[in-house]
Design brief:
globular; 219 residues
Length: 219
Amino acid sequence: MTSTAERGHRIEQRGSRWFRRPFQIIRANLGAYLALNAMAYGLFLVGMGVGLLRPELTGANTASLQQDGTAEMVTWAMSSTWLFSLTILAVNTVWLSLAHVLLPSAIVPFGGIAVFAYWALYTGVTLAPVNEVTALTMIPHSLTVLIEFQAYVLVLLGAYRLGMSWLRPGTVGARTRRQGYVRGLRQVGWLGLPALALLVVGAIYEAVEIIHLVPLLLP
């Protein structure tokens, strides 16, 4: 009969594994991880630069958000900090991470990485500080970008590992592409744990900064 101490030790080992395994994957793929960081933050900054040079593009992106109902949904969700947090979390996990990065990558190797690259550039253009209001808004919002983009980088790394395991199953010790695909999905799951934690933190902070901090900075 398993003792309470043994059960506790097993739970502790499991928890330690959940914590260590994502970092082991990152360490084993450090070059890809750094390259994806450079791509994600770099394209965002390039987009901001484009927006500063061509402010009419930033205005057009903002107008499109109003026309497709996104701005109206944001205004409705801002009635409550927690509701806004949950809305942000749902958009960042389901709409972007799952639907636009992982799902395309599960069909076409690395497909979601290309989709994210376009999104990062577009987002940079949209958030370009072309006037005093957007410049002041970006002061607290820069931390949101830092946190959430780091979560996206982990998701992108998962998409990269899925593609590599699928195309080159030998890199994960698999004999067939099917086995490689399954093992790649496992790595996606491991990397999804810290990514989800960062997205939760980012969603809470983003809701707080938009509802409570930004109004204090605006004239």
